[in-house]
Amino acid sequence: MTESEQAYDADVAVVGYGPTGVAAALTLAHQGVSVVVFERDRDIYPRARAVTINDWTMRIFQSLGIDERVTRVIEPQRALRWVTYDGTELMRVEHPPSTLGVKPRFYNIYQPVMEQELRDCAGEYGDLLRVEYGADVVELEQDDDGVSVTAVDEGTGERTQARVRYVIGADGGSSRTRGMIDCDLAGDTLDVQWIVIDCKVKRWWPDRDFLTFWSDRERPVVDIALSAGNHRWEIPLKPGETEDDFASPAQVWPLLAAMGVTEDDVEIHQWAFYRHHTRMADTWRDGRVFLAGDAAHLMPPWAGAGMQTGIRDAQNLGWKLARVLRGELDEAWLDTYEAERRPNAAFYTGLAVQLGRVIKQEASPEEIEAMNTVPEGLVTPFEPPLIAPPVLDGGWVRGPIGDASVVGRMVPQPTVGDTTGRMARLDDLLGDGFVLLGADVDPVTLLTEDEKAAWDALGARYVAVRPKASYTQGADDLVDLDEVLLPWLARYGARAVAVRPDRFVAAADIAGLAVPA
What we know:
Blueprint: H1 3-6, E1 10-15, H2 19-30, E2 35-39, E3 52-54, H3 55-63, H4 67-71, E4 75-76, E5 79-84, E6 89-94, E7 106-108, H5 111-123, E8 129-133, E9 135-142, E10 147-153, E11 159-169, H6 176-180, E12 185-201, E13 210-215, E14 221-226, E15 230-236, H7 249-257, E16 266-281, E17 285-286, E18 289-291, E19 297-298, H8 306-325, H9 336-359, H10 365-372, E20 415-418, E21 423-425, H11 426-430, E22 435-439, H12 449-457, E23 461-467, E24 478-480, H13 485-491, E25 496-499, E26 505-508
Parallel strand pairs: 1-2, 1-11, 2-8, 5-13, 11-18, 22-23, 23-24
Antiparallel strand pairs: 3-7, 4-7, 5-6, 9-10, 10-11, 12-15, 12-16, 13-14, 14-15, 16-19, 17-18, 20-21, 20-24, 22-25, 25-26
Helix pairs in contact: 2-5, 2-8, 8-9
């Protein structure tokens, strides 16, 4: 170990150990990067906040080798519906089969339980991933070589310092990290206060497994089955109502009774109050310090994407940081983090606002009809934005992005076979690096000498995807057993695509397979 390496206590410090922080720590440790986490609280926040995850998030968990463990503590979600109190259904979103190698497409969660499972997985990395509980970060001092992190023990008041190369601030909506880098959080906070009521289920009732949005101007309600035998209602307080009006279970029960929920159905477990925020940080980076999750963006809950957006931030930043720290990528790669993640966070924020207008009956019938209208003439099969597979809007890609382009899309994940007859999900056979996939062609044959040298420098693999009715020809060939990959490439007229470690398509032969600038 060199003198320079000995000067660091860890490669990366993560401030905050909620879902975003633990996802960042897991992503880094999985890539062999040392992490120290500073978490102010000693215990997991006991109230459920996020209520759902989808197949994109589960694919991230798969990349970390923990998806099967997470699946054991979450439950499938049936569908989404928007209804009025007289029983009129305004809109429904069914969940079609996932293209990302996960079944089903959406899951209900109970956040404290899932969060504990994530922390248990992180705990298996030993000294590579060290967590300091009860440690409040009070100062960050960065220079050209790293960051000095000062934390205060909440119990003893003792100050400690750690020297790291980079810092990820994942310390939530009230982020101190954000303040330490003089970052503003622009946007709005709505005046309306909501009560969140978490209950233990005592018996099943009809259609409990729908995620139901009760649409009403005065009392719109989110009604959702959580995992582990829990159920939640989110209800706005009326003008003049305050927290003091709901200080006991006896005062809370009338809110549930109005929807026909009785003590035979559930037992009230806990309740809390909050307001909806629509805010985003003006920058997500200052030198060696990055923001992720709620520290960078806050959105209303209507799209179920707040926590998931943070987890996706963590993966995007984590795989890039790991490769920069290992010397495999230039530090300029870190500029792509915000360029790629900010548009996606803005998309889900806007979608949440739009869906909220339906729930609160602020959307006109014409607007609702437009939301339910399927556009014509698309190359990509239409799916409602809430459930459609993700697409990059920019960043480290080459070529046009849009309906008719494969660039920026997440490659589907069917079951494939290798030359030895092994069958597995695509990602499990591709590994975690850059890969060029050819449609029944060796992608190397489509590259110039300089292009191949550039991909070689990134450690890329070259894989031909063969039809299941043909022979494999090379040691790295894969067979499209589910007949998904080859038709997907053909839809966009692509003979070969370059796939990033996060499974987004960076380039295609149509616009050129050169490494994106």
